[in-house]
Write a structure and sequence with these properties.
Radius of gyration: 26 Å
Shape: elongated
Order of helices and strands: EEHHHHH
Distance between the termini: 54 Å
Low-confidence stretches: none
Largest sheet: 2 strands, antiparallel
Strand order of the largest sheet: 1-2
Strand content: 15-25%
Oligomer: single chain
Helix content: 40-55%
Length: 147
């Protein structure tokens, strides 16, 4: 194993040999990459931010996943497994999860979850009057926190 130290202004040259099968037989091909210190640092910095969502582990993101499952089930009347649901129970569990959220987590609720909640609010046949009022209050709280 080789150890390489790279400092500002240095260039890293990586050379490797690979074997390719061609119609005329096997052929060894030498390839190379060249990176400056600055390019490597930029790639490392951007990769760590790009590959991980800033909200994936937050309570708001977890609630967003609950919203996706609950609103889909309420719309269809069944879970994704095909089992029947009790819409009242699904709604109450979803809203109890919302009530557990700290207001600072509202910003971590995904746009899709907010859209799903809005769609559920507009769908008159899926909610009872008190449920619609509770959901409306929750949507208002989320929108107020976004502003």
């Amino acid at each position: 194993m080789a150890t390489v130290e790279l400092r500002e202004g240095d260039v890293l040259n990586i050379v490797w040999t690979s074997v390719q099968n061609t119609p005329l037989g096997r052929k060894e091909v030498e390839s190379s990459l060249s990176y400056t210190y600055a390019e490597l640092m930029e790639r490392l910095r951007s990769k760590t931010r790009r590959d991980t969502s800033r909200r994936s582990g937050t309570e708001g993101a977890r609630f967003s996943r609950v919203v996706a499952l609950a609103t889909n089930a309420m719309h269809k009347g069944k879970w994704s497994t095909g089992a029947d649901i009790d819409r009242d129970e699904v709604f109450q569990r979803m809203m109890s999860r919302f009530r557990e959220l700290h207001t600072s987590e509202y910003q971590n609720i995904t746009k899709n979850a907010k859209d799903s909640l809005s769609y559920l609010f507009q769908k008159k046949s899926l909610l009872k009057t008190l449920q619609k009022k509770e959901l409306g209050t929750a949507l208002t709280a989320i929108k107020d926190r976004d502003s």
